[in-house]
Structures are given as C-alpha cells and as structure tokens.
C-alpha cells in the first residue's frame, strides 16, 4: 500500500493527469451527444460537457498543489473536487434515470426552439419532415407534388415521394428517427459520468491523506 510522502505525491500527480484526460473525454462525449441528437436541447448533456471543462481547470490546481505540497491549494482543490463529484454524480444519475418519454419531451422542446435553417439541415440529413407528425398539407397545383406548410419540407417531400404514385405521400417524422441516437447519448453520458465521478472521490481521499503527511525535506512551510 502506498503510504509514504513521495508515493502519495506521485499518486496525486498521476491522478490529476488522469483527470485532465477524463476532462477531455467528457468534453468529447458531450460534443458527440449533441452532434448525434443534432437539434435537441439537452441541458443534462450540456452539464456533462461543463463538468469536463471544470475538471480540467481543477486538475491544474491539483497538480500545482501536489508538486509544491501547498496546503491552501490542496484544501481548495479538495473542496472543489468534492463538490464536482456531487454535481457530476447527480447529473450522470439523471441521464440514466430519464425514460424514453422524457427524452422525447426534451427533443421536441429543442426542435421547437431551433431556427428553421437547422431544422432543414436535419430533414435533409434524415429525409424526414416535422418532429412527431408532418404539418398540415396542401397540393401544389402546378407541380402536382404534395408538400407541407413548412417551406423546408417541400423539397424533402419531393425526394421522399419521387418513386411513389400516392398523391398523399409524405416523408416520415424526424422524431422516431432521432429516438435511438438520443437514447444512446443519454446512456453514454450517464455511464461515463458515474464511472469517472468515483475517481474524483478517490482524489478527495488521496488529497486529505497527502495534506496530513510531513514533507521529509523538513521545510518550515511544508507542513502546517
């Protein structure tokens, strides 16, 4: 068991380097989750991304405190890291607790708030129209093509119904097509968030232990 001063110091430095890597990983997961869901306004996923950024900043404080055995730095590092553990654990648990119906509510709310340009981008990518159901429709008397009230659906419906002779043909809604991606993003963020939050708890325990160990160099300010 690592019990002496130098071992605790090296372990804390290594753990903070790991935190920097975890922070970048959480940022990557958050970015991927937003990209996968494309238009959904997912504040929980945004919380995971914010935790990644904060974790990197805290790790820098922890590295400085561990190298210098600075009591004040280590104290604030320990307090902030414990608070981050509580926040990240709560957010990650929320990600795993959200059911399919709640996910769809988040997604539909996000769909209504995004600009039409982004909606059109999603509809072009997935060949869909609207979120849960296509809009009320009208028939173009000139082209004879069935289209929706929303301008961005006109060309999509033409592409979806190019090989169909049904005059009532419409593209399918985007909501069902995005459901699997949204669910995967929530589960991925929740699982990684809970796993890495426990490493933060280990960091708090290691910092408390390291602060109470005397520097063998015998410097007057090394142990307060």
Automatic annotation (TrEMBL):
Q: Which residues cross the membrane?
A: 12-32, 44-67, 74-92, 185-208
Where's it found, cell-wise?
Membrane
Q: Does the keyword Transmembrane apply?
A: yes
Signal as a keyword of this entry, yes or no, is: no
Superkingdom? Eukaryota
Membrane topology per record: Multi-pass membrane protein
Main subcellular localisation: membrane
Q: Which InterPro entries match?
A: Tetraspanin/Peripherin (IPR018499)
This entry carries the following GO cellular component terms, namely: membrane
Key words of the record: Membrane, Transmembrane, Transmembrane helix
Q: What name appears for this protein in its UniProt entry? A: Uncharacterized protein, isoform C
The gene from which this protein is expressed is: Dwil\GK11444
């Amino acid at each position: 068991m690592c019990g002496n001063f130098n071992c605790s110091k090296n372990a804390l430095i290594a753990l903070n380097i790991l935190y920097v890597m975890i922070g970048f990983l959480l940022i990557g997961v958050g970015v991927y989750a937003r990209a996968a869901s494309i238009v959904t306004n997912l504040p929980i996923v945004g919380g995971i991304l914010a935790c990644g950024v904060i974790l990197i900043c805290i790790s820098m404080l922890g590295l400085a405190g561990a190298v210098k055995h600075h009591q004040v730095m280590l104290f604030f590092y320990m307090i902030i890291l414990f608070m981050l553990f509580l926040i990240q654990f709560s957010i990650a648990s929320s990600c795993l607790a959200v059911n399919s119906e709640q996910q769809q509510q988040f997604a539909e709310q996000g769909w209504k708030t995004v600009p039409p340009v982004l909606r059109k981008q999603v509809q072009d990518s997935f060949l869909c129209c609207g979120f849960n159901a296509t809009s009320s429709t009208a028939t173009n008397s000139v082209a004879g093509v069935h289209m929706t009230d929303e301008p961005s659906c006109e060309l999509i419906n033409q592409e979806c119904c190019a090989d169909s002779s049904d005059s009532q043909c419409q593209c399918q809604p985007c909501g069902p097509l995005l459901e699997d991606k949204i669910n995967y993003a929530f589960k991925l963020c929740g699982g990684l968030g809970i796993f890495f939050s426990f490493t933060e708890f280990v960091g708090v325990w290691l910092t408390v232990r390291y602060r109470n160990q005397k520097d063998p160099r015998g410097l007057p300010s090394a142990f307060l």
